[in-house]
Amino acid sequence: MNRSSNGNYQSRGSYGASNPSNGNYRSGDRRSDNRENYNSGGFNHSNQNRQKQLNSLDDIKNLPKPNWSSVHLKHFEKKFLHESQAAVHRPFSEVTNFLTSNNISVSGAHHVKPVLSFNELEIPKDILYKIQDLKFDRPTPIQSMCWPSLLNGNDMVGIARTGSGKTFGFILPMLIHIMNNQKYAKSFSREEIPGPVGLVVAPTRELAMQIQQVADDFGNQLGIKNIVIYGGSPKNAQLNQVRRGADIYIATPGRLIDFVKENQISLSRCTFLVLDEADRMLDMGFEPQIRKIIEQIRPDRQTAMFSATWPKEVRKLAEDFISNYCHINIGSGELAANPNIKQIVEVCQEYEKEGRLREILTQIMSQRDSKAIVFAETKKKVDMYSKIIQSLGHHCLAIHGDKKQQEREWVLNEFKRKPKSILCATDVAARGLNISDIKYVINIDYPMQTEDYVHRIGRTARNSNTGTAFTFITGENAKHVPKLIEILRGANQQVSDSLLALTRNGQGFRSNGFNRNQRPSYNNNNSDGYNQNGSSNGYKRSAAALDESSSSYDNGNDTNKRVRRNRWDDGTSNNNDTENGYRKNGNGYNDNYQLPPPPQVTQQMPTQVSPPSLLAGPGMYSSYASYY
């Protein structure tokens, strides 16, 4: 679904146990020098908390599976597809051309023809009016395919990159499903344990909140209520919402399974289940929770699973819980970066990064409406670089694992509101971030996984916009370079000689400094310069668990955190870090190196931005840009 120039349509964003093996759940290990304890539910490495983690996993294993064969299941309807004559009589050649031009493949059961306009479906008039208000002109490819499939009552698996319109792709069929099953929904008494008819499970609270915004925008037109349930927020407030009643629950796995274990929520009445970003949830270790959640839902439900990639773990989950499903794939399903992103990778030494950052920001922020995200590896570096950026006279905000949820929302709202600003962030804190007008991404540190690199640079160039991503890479990152080169070549990006040399020389490589004579121009009118390009494709997520919680979250202990990486994606520096957050590499660094002086700033230095005690004004998701 295309949007007008004033915004885009789609998205996108924890912890868990490792994947089950022989029925036993194994908690992940952490190195002792790993970095961040989150003050809002952080993971503590003490033996006591490790034992709590194992106990929490035992609680999940011990959650009984209902004997559905002995339960009387109330009747509900699934099929609501009423195709227009144009869709019914569309020539096969036209369908084939649409599939080919959008790189769509369809397999499995229950094939249906795509819908190419909103008028080809019987959509409630109030929703059509809302679509017109948002200036959507036609469905996106994933919406064209999944709407007729889901409205026909089919189970389906949709593989499409972030930003493709998946959210509205499943929200619209869910709303129509609930609207046509009002008699079923009202058949449950108020004395019964409350629960949803439609359930969306998402990996992070940021993503859950974005999904809620779409559900609000269109559900409010039909009087269909929703609530969002996630870790990091007081349980009592969420339980009060549950008791007031809602048709749709949008939840992260940890908090949802907590409420199910406590008999605060029953999933037995759910008839429409969506697993969003399934690959990320599995990669973060949520498989035990997801399997238990699905077990609690009636087996004749309608199920939709969406994922950016199609690895064997996601295939196994689909095979175990979804039968006779329609498989819709948009693109290759492999890890890839959008070719619209101009990717510039510079090989350097650690001590060179700050000076290079100053130069890049001085040039790109001289342009009009330049909005950028700067990614750093640790919260200590985020704080340090945000102060450096502010010292250059730029409006800069910081977000990382020590920020409370209210402060995060305020920071993101400020970043969205100001057309010319910089956000300095860690990987975890930026999950689910979806702002349409970000032009630049700067990776000060290369992430722990190449999947996270693709996710980071996908923060720019949402929908069909363009963007530029700068990445600093050192000898310590040599093991990631072969995969990075694959990503660059797959997106038709230039691979520098210094990057190729790093694959040969490995961690022994030492940069001779940035070659100033080989840097491309920042002039957007120069064909060799930096366009604003891109969006992301599939990616697996890291295990750092800022965005989710187990039952002990409110006590400050993240007791169900599975760790599959060697260290946190977000946190304080390890024991080998210097005071300024720079990690020493094998060759050390030049203590006598003098950074170039910052450029002279004529404007008044901005004051340190501090969030208010209470959120003021519109919420962080008040605009429609990019959330559909």
UniProtKB/TrEMBL annotation:
Residues 1-50, 508-618 are annotated as: Disordered. The keyword ATP-binding applies. It is an enzyme of class 3 (hydrolase). Coiled coil: none annotated. Its EC number is 3.6.4.13. Residues 147-328 form the Helicase ATP-binding domain. A motif (Q motif) lies at residues 116-144. Residues 27-36 have a biased composition (Basic and acidic residues). One of its GO terms (molecular function) is RNA helicase activity. Keywords: ATP-binding, Helicase, Hydrolase, Nucleotide-binding. InterPro entries: DEAD/DEAH_box_helicase_dom, Helicase_ATP-bd, Helicase_C-like, P-loop_NTPase, RNA-helicase_DEAD-box_CS, RNA_helicase_DEAD_Q_motif. Gene3D superfamilies: P-loop containing nucleotide triphosphate hydrolases. PANTHER family: ATP-DEPENDENT RNA HELICASE DBP3 (PTHR47958). This is RNA helicase. The lineage of its organism: Eukaryota, Metazoa, Spiralia, Gnathifera, Rotifera.
